[in-house]
Amino acid sequence: MSTSAAAQHAPGRAPGEGAAARARGLTKAYGAGETAVLALDSVDVDIARGRFTAVMGPSGSGKSTLMHCLAGLDTVSAGQVWLGETEITGLRERELTRLRRDRIGFMFQSFNLIPTLTAAENITLPMDIAGRRPDQAWLDQVIDTLGIRGRLGHRPSQLSGGQQQRVACARALASRPELIFADEPTGNLDSRAGLEVLGILRGAVDDLGQTVVMVTHDPGAAAHSDMVLFLADGRIVDELARPTAERVLERMKRFDGERTRRLDDTRGTRAARED
Ligand SMILES: Nc1ncnc2c1ncn2[C@@H]1O[C@H](COP(=O)(O)OP(=O)(O)OP(=O)(O)O)[C@@H](O)[C@H]1O
Fold this sequence. Notes:
GO terms for molecular function: ATP binding; ATP hydrolysis activity; transmembrane transporter activity. By secondary structure, the chain is an alpha/beta fold.
């Protein structure tokens, strides 16, 4: 199905506002010849501004590749990608670095905090590198929303996993980016800390007007989003607005069944040909 067409009418999309990011015909191949892997196969997608979008799919379906291409972390083989109104495909590495620094926030499963810096220093590091002054009122709001004011002088090793992820979240929010990409942000956390982080991302969207895209394997995590995009074999095969964990799980099971049937059909055809 064409996700772009469907997304224009999706309840998860704020009417009248442009997409925070979009891709048309996004194709990414790794390697060449016999060993080439088509990680993304002509993907059309609109990421709604001011919404929380989850990206799900089996291992190897292209979730991380999609995120990396939308964030300008990876080059594309074909197609176009825009961040807001800026087409990022074709930008030079230096322009991409600046664009990522100024307009995108990242959260990773492994937090990626600098161990020798305090929480406060980690939070403002990207802005310090860019020579930008943080907006103190915004920073205070983020720090208080995340409940980490009492931890600002601590180094990462003195913080729990959940607190480290909250610091990583504050770092992603500090520059007030147009778009936050979170790759399995709850993957290394116990369920309580994971729920806290999901609540924080939800709050960043609802209370602070941020746009969040989260890659996850967890239907429970996806249920915190406004819209789930399902990837399979490098294509967006479905989307689900206002998800619940049960509905996400049910869709995933359906895709697994369809995929197994397709594979069985392919094997059957091949076996018949060889007979
Ligand atoms: N640097 C690379 N070189 C070669 N192949 C790659 C590379 N990165 C990813 N791939 C392949 O591209 C496909 C998509 O990978 P990707 O990491 O995007 O999947 P994913 O859905 O994020 O998987 P997972 O859930 O396991 O993290 C896979 O078949 C993978 O093996």
